[in-house]
Amino acid sequence: MKKGLYFSLIFILFSNILQAQITAPDADGSDETQYPVFSETDDIYIFCTADSTFGIGALTVSTELEGTKTFLWEKYNKESADFEYFSQESMDGYVSQISNLADGCYRATVTQGETSEVDRAWVFNNWTVVSGYTSDSNCELFILNGEFETAELLYYDLSDNAEIQLSKEIEMEWQQDGDAVSSLLVATIYDPPTEDTNYTLTVSDKFGCTTSATVTYESIVTEAEFTANPTSGEAPLTVTFTNTSENGTSGYYEWFLYRDIYEITDESEDAIEPVDSILIMEYDDSPVYTYEYTGSYKVKLVSKNVSEFYTCTDTFIMEDYIEVDSSVIVVPNVFTPNGDGVNDQLIVKFESLESLEINIYNRWGKRVHHWKSGDVEGFEETWSETVWDGKIGGSYASPGVYYYDVRGYGRDGIKRSKHGFIHLFRGK
After folding, report:
1. Which string of b and e fits 73-94 if b means at least 16 CB within 10 Å?
2. Element (H, E) at 284
């Protein structure tokens, strides 16, 4: 055979092998092979599926050949490194489809007379199974633990059967109410919420295959909070404390009602031992307390959540004060008129008064001192008056216990009275 005739036959033979077209309209994603040796490339079609139980891949081959045609489908066998029969049909139509396909490479050959068209494509059923759970839950934190198993997408070089792994570029994200919490599979959550909360782990890849699992964090923490009504008024002032704490255990609340801040401050100035600042403690869920005396009072609530292994607590301190009364009279219980320049005078402190009258009696009930003013000042400011120098008729009074009776009329229109005992010490 002449050399020119040989090349003419080769051209005629290859001109009859045309290209059919394999597509996958229902595929969720696609890629292209990167064979290390084989010089051609093939399409890769990805089908997102829930698990590895069934194949859902489907391929369609189309042709423009006229007349009755044979559609031969073959599947690549990695063991024999060759294509083997899968299915076949003959018809006048232009399209053939195979479905419920397992992973692998499929070759379609469309034959009409001496004309053949060939195409190949890889199919992968891409599944991911996700699960999660919480652990190490305590008062400060808990841990979200995610786990997943995913399909390994492997294809083979058609020249030497070398195994190639298709990259999926997997990403993970924990979300809570649609907000991202962490991109780590195992995530530590600090400051846990005070209510049972769902967290969703989503695992996705570059093909758009997404699988999620939801776990529930069962809260064991609490957040303390309360309101007070009213927060100011004249004495006696009855205040209702409404507990608005989240996830606290009923019967385990502790209320700290503190003494007047000014009394605490005064006592603390020269105190050697710590001053007891607590007026009273309450253990009701929402107590009601009556403040008998004027002053500025702080309130603290400790909320507890009591669970099987932990007792978690949280504290809320009232930002402002409970302001009791708009007019004030404060009388000390000790004074020392000994001439040393310290506490030599009985000084009565007051606020918002118009008039003030003070009577002091000895232990037999005899009045030994009287002081009165109908024009005192002290509205919106704290004032004080020296009302007794510790003398009776010009002579020093005997040391001992005296009784005082103080009466005043406030600029708020309220009559005020205060009475009690005062200790007079003379020694230096």
Report:
1. bbbbeeeeeebeebeeeeeeee
2. none
Least Cα distance to 356 among 391, 383, 317, 380 occurs for: 383
Across 308-336, b (16+ Cβ under 10 Å) vs e yields eeeebbbebebeebbbbbbbbbbbeeebb
Under 8 Å CB-to-CB from 270, ≥6 apart: which residues?
Answer: none
Alpha helical stretches, state H, 173-256: none
Judge whether 392 and 364 are in contact, CB under 8 Å: no
Among 261, 413, 251, 244, residue whose Cα is nearest residue 323: 261
Contact (CB, 8 A) for 169 and 157: no
Supply the pLDDT for residue 380.
47
pTM of structure: 0.69
The first and second tokens of residue 29, run together, are: 């994603």
State pLDDT tens for residues 81-94. 999 999 999 999 99
User: Which of 66, 69, 86 has the alpha carbon at shortest distance from 77?
Assistant: 86
Instruction: With CA atoms as reference, report the closest residue to 291 among 342, 240, 223, 236.
Output: 236
Q: Is the bond into 25 cis (omega within 30 degrees of 0)?
A: no
DSSP 285: S
- Mind listing the pLDDT tens digit for each residue in 52-74? 778 899 999 999 999 999 999 99
For residue 12, give the 3-state DSSP assignment. helix
Q: How far apart are CA 58 and CA 82, in angstroms?
A: 21
CA–CA distance, 376 with 351 (Å, rounded to integer): 10
177 secondary structure, DSSP code: T
Give me the phi and psi of 25, to 5 degrees please: -60, -30
392-402 b/e with 16+ CB inside 10 Å = b? eeeeebeeeeb
